[in-house]
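Dear colleague,

Thank you for sharing your sequence with our group. We've completed the structure prediction you requested, and as agreed, I am returning the results in plain text so they can be pasted directly into your records. Please verify that the sequence below matches your submission; if there's any discrepancy, let me know and we will rerun it promptly.
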Amino acid sequence: MYRCFGKPQNSNEFLRHFVNKTKSLAHEGLLFREQIIKINIHALICDAPAKSYVLQVKGHTGYSSYTKCTIEGKYKERRICFPGEANELRSDEFKNLIYDDYHIGETSLTELPNFDLVTSVALDYMHLICLGIMRKLLNLWLSSPLTVKLGA
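Please find the predicted structure tokens below.
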């Protein structure tokens, strides 16, 4: 947890203690009831802006901002959309900074053992569903003329 006015300028400084502690727990383990338990991080849950911040990638409104594949976004109706067919899936090659139009820097999360920066980072339910699809559906349902009704 972090408390300050504004976010830290450098996400790697923000993550340094977490990354170091996680590496230590993965290698040395945690003593619990006279037993050593190795700890690994299996998932990272963030909203879309925080995810781009900690992964050091383009923000969620960027043309190359989709985290799961390399599809290029298109500007449509005042927003970036990702229409069309699925493109090449992003892989853990992410660590090698091979996606020039996606990366804005290196993330210290690459140091986490057994952590895939693509599959271990969850999609953001709030921005994708609650503020995306559901808002669009509610606007359609509430502001469109009711020419069709669902039967009981």
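Summary note from our side: The longest strand covers residues 30-32.

Kind regards,
the structure core
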